[in-house]
Amino acid sequence: MIMRGKRKRWLLLLLAVLIAAAGALLLHRGRPRFDPDAQLTVTRQEDGWQLAWPQVQGAERYQVQAESQGQTLLEQTVDQPGCTLPAVQDGRVRIRIRPLSARGRGAARTWQVEDAGAIPWPSLTGFEARANDDACAIDFAWQGEGADRYLLYRLGEDGTVMERPMPTYTMYLGQEGQMPLPAYGQQIQFAGSLGRLQGDILFCCPVSAPHTFVREDFLGTEIHLNAVQQEDNCYTFRWNEAKGSGYILQYQTGQTRQWTDLARVQPAEQPSCQVKLRSGTDYSLRVVAEGAASRSEPIRLTTGLSTLYATVWPIQDLEVYADTGRQQVMGTLPAVSACCVLEETEGLFRVRTPEGEGYIDADLCLINLPDYIGELCLYDITNSYDSRYMVHGYGIPEITGTVIVGYENVCLAQGEYLAPLLYPSAQKLAQAARAALEDGYRLKIYDAYRPRQATLELYRITGEHLQDPIPEQTYTGQPVDDLPEGIPLLHELLAGQEADPPVPSDATNGWLLDWAVGGETSAGSEAASSEAAASSEAVPPPVPEETVPQPDVPAETPPQPEGYLTYYQLMTGGRYHLGSFLARNGSTHNLGIAMDLTLVDVDTGEELQMQTAMHDLSCYAVLARNNQAAELLADYMMGAGFAPLTSEWWHFQDDDTRDALGLEVYQEKGVSLEGWHRDLEGWYYCGSDGSRLSGPAADTDGGN
To answer: Which has the minimum average pLDDT: 351-360, 519-528, 595-604, 683-692?
Structure first.
């Protein structure tokens, strides 16, 4: 029994010892400790030595002790694996570092420098770091003596140090490199040093000045642009990164012939932008990097016709429908109210109105030609800034060179024009424009929709000056060599005789009849139908419906001939009258179905020579005197379904659309761009001159 008791106590004691040993072992293993091959880096500085050691796993702090020749040089606790030791000139130096953690003190590691005065410090004479944008890399190079290690420091938060065995090194960046490219707005810095390893201590010379890099340093100069069409003429443009502080998407068309900024894009890893291009236009587009020589090769594309975001105006008061079924009427949109097309469907335009978004009849809307057919045509609406109405080169007082009433808002701030035409007529015009382009010509629009107030004023003011004598000089100063013979200008008559001028005989006014015989015999009118315009007698314009206000214009009575050349004589040639050239009551222009236009040679950019200048209100402009160029213009327009006007080679009107829609009411007011419009960025309010008065607006319940 005694033996059993002793054995039992002995076993219990042994078990306790084993448990204690196991606990001590576990506790020891849980404490942080240096790897057996841990290396201490000592870098010489002006004020001492910079010590650095490897990060110990689990360590939260480090206890550092340094002594030399029995004196304590340093004793402190630091949070990071590094500290500064006061300079030591000679003698043995012992450095003891112990990692600390919440579990307790770790095992200390001691490094010893045998003689501080005999350290073989290396010498750095140069350190280069250059960005290699071709390879998206940094090329490093060290120069110096006494080194067997080449150190690369990544300055900043991580403080990475790399040791290289050779004096040159290339670090690749990017997805497949050793480190990612710096983000935009971020810098990366590198510095270099030389080291010499003795035992487990690496002795280093002072670190070089830092080299700083940003993302742009690693980007090339080549830009590759591509375009993807999204809807209608909305495109997404994408390209690769390149040097520069930003990007500009630029365009050039057959008309601009110069690069114009379209969109600006901030630097990004995958730069792109979305834009809506103008309909019916041949584009060249490129991307240029700001502040650098980077640019893409131009890409070319041609846009189709689209009504998306085009400006339209109702030609008359229109009902606004809640849906495409036209069953529920939301309200009425007043005539000539500017709207922005959000969608075209089932013969309707979806637009924004004071009552909200709704649908209006597309066929009864004027559409802005530059928005819809773009550069299929050219535009120069001279009535909006410098009217060219003349009588065979001679300016009409109060008309020539002025802004015609009702056109005040047609010339926009950007140097562009509003050119409204009824939508069905605009579709026909596109057909004529394409036919002309196939032959190397482009239609140039001088006038389209004309408000009735302009028609009445033109007729009234011109009529007041019919008996005025023709001025001594033409409006432009260029001489006219085909004036009628036998009728002198007033200044010529006064210079040639002192007596009162004689009254000319009736034959005096027959100077233009010879060429008219056997040719076109009618003086048609804008207000007359095409059949009436072709009749043998001059037909006065038809009177509009009684609901339309009538102008206070007396019936036209031919004035008595004078002994000198007057506007009336030069205009009519004794056969025509004012109503042959200017409508007295209402014009097809007031219905939005007529336009005045000419032809331009695409290669030269010059207008074709017609028998007269545009808007020459004289018998020289009648169709019977058409030259080959005027006949070519007529072929294109009549081939698309337009009818000519006997007295004006430039005028064509869409009688078929007028009859099909039953258009009867001449619109009084001119158009304006003022109202809410939309683009890819959102809604914005536009002033009457085309300028944006407010940025993108989230509210879509406002009125026009």
So the answer is: 519-528
Burial of residue 365 (number of CB atoms within 10 Å: 0-12, 13-18, 19+): buried
Please give the sequence-ordered ranges of beta strands (E in DSSP) within 428-494, or none if there are none: 441-447
Our CA angle for 508, 504, 511, nearest 5°, is: 10
User: What is the spatial distance between Cα 628 and Cα 610, in angstroms, rounded to a whole number?
Assistant: 8
Question: In this structure, how many other beta carbons lie within 10 angstroms of the beta carbon of residue 109?
Answer: 20
> Is pTM beyond 0.85 here?
no
- Using CA atoms, how far residue 565 sits from 57, 475, 581, 612, in Å, is 110, 16, 19, 19
Specify whether the CB–CB gap between 361 and 339 falls below 8 A.
no
| Whether residue 279 sits in one domain with residue 152 | no
pLDDT above 90 as % of the chain: 71
Q: Is residue 684 part of a domain?
A: no
Q: For residue 60, how many other CB atoms are within 10 A of its CB?
A: 12
**pLDDT tens digits for 366-405?**
999 999 999 999 999 999 999 999 999 999 999 999 999 9
One domain, residues 526 and 634: yes
Query: What residue type is 164 in one-letter code?
Result: R
Task: Specify whether the CB–CB gap between 312 and 351 falls below 8 A.
Answer: yes
Q: Domain with 227 in it: what CATH number?
A: 2.60.40.10
pLDDT in tens, 484-533: 876 777 666 565 544 444 444 343 333 443 333 333 333 345 654 333 33
Within a 10 A sphere around the Cβ of 605, how many other Cβ atoms? 12
d(CA 486, CA 43): 111
Residues 621 and 522 in one domain: yes
Distance of alpha carbon 49 from alpha carbon 111, whole angstroms: 14
Give Dmax over CA atoms of the chain in angstroms.
174
